[in-house]
Amino acid sequence: MDTAIEEAGTPSRTLLRHATTLSIYAPRRPGVRASTVLHPGGVQGIPLIRNIAIIAHVDHGKTTLVDQMLRQAGAFRANQQVEERVMDSNPLERERGITILAKNTAVTWEGTKINIVDTPGHADFGGEVERILRMVDGVLILVDAAEGPMPQTRFVTRKALALGLRPIVAINKIDRSDAEPLRVHDEVLGLFIDLDATHEQLDAPFLYTSSRAGTATTELEQPGTDLRPLFRAILDYVPEPKGDPEGPFQMLVSTLDFSSFLGRIAIGRIERGRVRVGDQVALLPLGEPGLVQDESFERNRVTRLYTFDGLHRVEVEGAQAGDIVALSGFETIEIGRTFTAVDCPERLAGIAVEEPTISVDVIVNNSPFAGREGKYITSRQLKDRLYRELERNVALRVEETDSPDTHTVSGRGELHLGILMETMRREGYEFQVSRPRVITRLGPDGERLEPYEELMVDVSEDYMGVVMEKLGPRRSEMSEMRNPGQGMVRLTFRIPARGLFGYRSEFLTDTRGTGIMHHRFLDYGPWAGPLAGRKRGVLVADREGNVVAFALGNLQERAQMFVTPGDLVYEGMIAGENSRPGDLDVNVTREKKLTNMRTTASDENVILEPPRPITLEYALEYIDEDELIEITPKTIRLRKRVLTANDRKKAARAARVADAS
Ligand SMILES: Nc1nc2c(ncn2[C@@H]2O[C@H](COP(=O)(O)OP(=O)(O)OP(=O)(O)O)[C@@H](O)[C@H]2O)c(=O)[nH]1
Ligand SMILES: [Mg+2]
């Protein structure tokens, strides 16, 4: 990966890559400090700059497009080996093929610097996209030429249009065999009208692109050969950043980065004036926009300043209005706070950080296998790690509970929490996690509200019945049904977030793995009352030992296994899913009885179905109230909270008595 950020003669480690986390902040080499680059010919002395964010639904090709923009704008050396989706630089992003953190980059095209922000498309990170929109002057909306506008397209487009940003639309992946760019073009226009786009916004240029091939064209009849039409559109349609470089310094913190070397780092666009390393600047507390009267605000010196250039972050002496910079020197940097000149403390409108909608309990591991695989396992270590995460993960909350062994962690969705857990286990942490709960709120009349999601499902018509049948009891309401053709239907529902827990696995089974579902947070609505839980029960191991193929062979007819031969299980660990309701205690360690009788070969070689892979997000959606996920650096296990079958029976009986009384 390092080849991508290597520069001739410079060890890649000394280069600062990308805007967000995991950056390596090594001391600068002497003599490489670049001075402020002033492009000639800027209006009112502002260098020629365009600031643009690329926004879209997950997987519509944003990061792939950035690759091509970097390449075609000459950000890589001629012979440089660059891997695909180079901006997805952190290991989890590469592994999952998704962008988790927004990242800044910049290219120069015909003398104009284009600051580009690649944003994540997954709904759990939608809040981050919203914040980023405050540092750009235009957006490039990417829409898959086959899928069309999806829930997240709608969300980010609405935010961008509401901020008055000028859109450029790229109907992407036109190379797909099922691409229907003209239909999607109409759908995007329909979306714009729905979202009350202004005349100017409706006039957006439409391009037909293939991120993968690196081509763009304004006319479908004339296939594109490169991205020139896209760069042209950016220069022509994205307004230049406004802001007087001669005025007093002012900048809004739009995103954060963190390094152990520099501490918190603010990233944002300079709204007005100039800033230089060593300048004394004010960091105003959050509050109403306008001049701050109370002069007790924080002041400090800017210790480091960076601008973006290709894959690098370049240390600079100074920068001015319009450019996007990263700035350090304050430990109290928060999203939405304003930096200003000390003698002109004029606050900008802040940025709301999204509120979490789901919580889980993170619990010290107390399974029989606790401490076997993890390095950090104590409640103290867990607590420190969770609180440390708050420094950079702004949409996360951590609370203590009555028990020192348990912390409640709240976030924006299963993926948001799942990524944190995955990161922690890779660092050597071992812990357990409860089933997620939605975070309820009180309405204006004191009534209980819960989060609702928009769910969009693409299935073949044959499966429509089963999908609707399953979603009904989960309190969903269908809001739209469309037939894009080719025997497919697209159904849109409004559903309590609770109603979706555990649904994905059912959905995949019901549609034989062919269905596609996406959901995103919509709003808070009335509490929907009790919902039915998981339909199927689980198989629970009734003793400790190694899993044996023979045992699984006997069980697999009525179950989908989660374990494979050789795995170690303990009593109370979940070994598979029962194909019927109700849990079963089973012995997955049972060996075949040895007899003197010769058996046929087929009897000895049990043919096993592959186990269902248990990923973290899957586990979070899957488990029930009386279950836990055990997470270690090596394994993810599902378990019953109460491990022995006897104690579970007793607990169930007690619960029934309590219910009856
Ligand atoms: N056929 C085709 N596939 C593409 C094109 N662009 C991207 N892809 C593929 O689509 C998948 C997703 O691409 P990404 O660039 O990671 O999408 P993204 O929008 O950055 O995704 P997130 O950051 O996770 O929201 C990858 O497998 C790409 O290879 C394209 O123009 N044509
Ligand atoms: Mg991406």
| The CATH architecture of the domain at 37-237 | 3-Layer(aba) Sandwich
How many separate helices? 16
Q: What is the CATH H-level superfamily of the domain at 37-237?
A: P-loop containing nucleotide triphosphate hydrolases
Low-pLDDT windows of residues: 1-45
Ligands: guanosine-5'-triphosphate, magnesium ion
Mean pLDDT: 88
Shape descriptor: globular
**Main pleated sheet:** 10 strands, antiparallel
* Terminal Cα span: 63 Å
Return the structural class: alpha+beta
Strand content: 25-35%
Q: What is the name of the CATH topology of the domain at 37-237?
A: Rossmann fold
Count all strands and give the number: 39
Task: Summarize the structure in words.
- 21% of the residues lie in helices and 30% in strands.
- It has 661 residues and is α+β, with helices and mostly antiparallel strands.
- Among the domains are: 37-237, 3-Layer(aba) Sandwich (Rossmann fold); 250-347, Translation factors (Elongation Factor Tu (Ef-tu), domain 3, Beta Barrel), CATH 2.40.30; 441-526, Alpha-Beta Plaits (2-Layer Sandwich).
- Strands 1, 9, 10, 11, 13, 15, 16, 17, 19 and 20 form a ten-stranded antiparallel sheet that branches. Strands 3-4-2-5-6-7-8 form a seven-stranded mixed sheet, sandwiched between helices. Strands 22, 23, 24, 25, 26, 38 and 39 form a seven-stranded antiparallel sheet that branches.
- A hairpin with a 4-residue loop joins strand 38 and strand 39 (636-640).
- It is globular.
- Residues 1-45 have low confidence and may be disordered.
- The structure holds guanosine-5'-triphosphate and magnesium ion.
